[in-house]
Amino acid sequence: MSDDNSLPFRRVLLKLSGEALLGDQSFGIDVKVARSVADEIKQAHELGTQIAVVVGGGNIFRGVSVSAGNMDRASADYIGMLATVMNAVVLQDALEKIGIHTRVLSAINIPQLAEPFIRRRAIRHLEKRRVVILAAGTGNPFFSTDTAAALRALEIKADAILKGTKVDGVYSADPMKDSTATRFDCITFQEVLEKRLRVMDASAISLCRDNNVPIIVFNMRTPGNIARVVRNEPGMGTLVCLEKP
């Protein structure tokens, strides 16, 4: 493993949606996809960057989804948090099968599956070259895993948030629906909020803006892209930052 001090990011937080583990399924976890995601993380990890991961649970259950029906919102959100723990354990297994030491830290106390999230413990694991998977969101209902990613990035003092998506950056409109949508190479947090672009939810964007934590939005489906973003290769996605360079 490399410890290249010239890398632009010493420590990053990778935000993955639960849907990233779906594959071609409509529900649940595709273990083969989890293994390919683990391979991508391994490539970036071996460059020397410390990596924490926040994974969503939308492939299993989402508190604001149709499947939640008329459930109490807090109860539904807690079920969603449990879904993120399931995804985290699957990803941990996939990473450890390819030789990457991994720890799952959960905001909900589940000692049989994960360590409790303690900020200093998470940082220590990262310093010991372990990939840290942060599960159960913030541990509170009414907060998305986007907000959890922003909060955890601040707590572990990450240099950037890497947001893996289905497209290669932030667009003026949904490129899947609007052929005239244009991609931004760089955009400010304020512009994201004003234009109501769906990068992350408003709470997460505001947290990152107020604490100057850049977000890089990139295409997770292209092999090798996590490592390319870690190396800060030109043209890799969209940079969301406080001020344009």
Short description:
This protein has 7 helices and 11 strands.
Give the name of the CATH superfamily.
Acetylglutamate kinase-like
Beta-strand percentage range = 15-25%
Strand sequence of the main sheet, in spatial order? Answer: 4-3-5-2-1-6-10-11-9
* Helix content estimate: 25-40%
Mean pLDDT: 92
Shape: globular
| Main sheet specs | 9 strands, mixed
Distance N to C terminus: 32 Å
Give the tally of β-strands.
Answer: 11
* CATH-defined architecture: 3-Layer(aba) Sandwich
The CATH class designation is Alpha Beta
The secondary structure category is: alpha/beta
Please tally the helical runs, counting DSSP H or I stretches of 4 or more residues.
Answer: 7
Low-confidence stretches: none
- What is the N-to-C order of secondary-structure elements (H for helix, E for strand)? EHEHEEHEHEEEEHHEHE
User: Could you say what the CATH topology is called?
Assistant: Carbamate kinase
The domain count comes to 1
CA radius of gyration is: 17 Å
